[in-house]
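Tokens in:
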């Protein structure tokens, strides 16, 4: 599967952004999907993930502010980010895997999100 992320940009603290990630391939619905992020000088971290059956998971840092969803007909996964904080500034990557027990092995190119204070 090939992944392409969109929707990054500059937003003020408290604002919102929606990141779509479009996938190619015929078996999108079988993939676990995720959004990761990497801030300057920091390790990449999970922002949200959604299973092939639509079960979401969020780390505490974004819980209640971010929502991940998927549209299998459009082969797209979305990350809705509300109440953005300057610490959400990062490059956001979408990722996919077929086996939830394995690492994510398909990655998109990343999209920059910058939150100004």
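Residues out:
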């Amino acid at each position: 599967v090939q992944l392409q992320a969109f929707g990054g940009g500059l937003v003020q603290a408290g604002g919102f952004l929606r990141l779509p990630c479009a996938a190619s391939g015929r078996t999108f619905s079988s993939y676990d999907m995720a959004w990761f992020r990497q801030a300057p000088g920091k390790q990449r971290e999970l922002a949200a993930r959604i299973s092939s059956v639509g079960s979401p998971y969020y780390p505490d840092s974004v819980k209640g502010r971010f929502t991940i969803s998927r549209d299998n007909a459009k082969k797209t996964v979305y990350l809705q980010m509300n109440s953005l904080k300057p610490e959400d500034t990062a490059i956001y990557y979408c990722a996919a895997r077929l086996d939830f027990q394995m690492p994510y092995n398909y990655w998109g190119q990343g999209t920059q999100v910058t939150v100004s204070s």
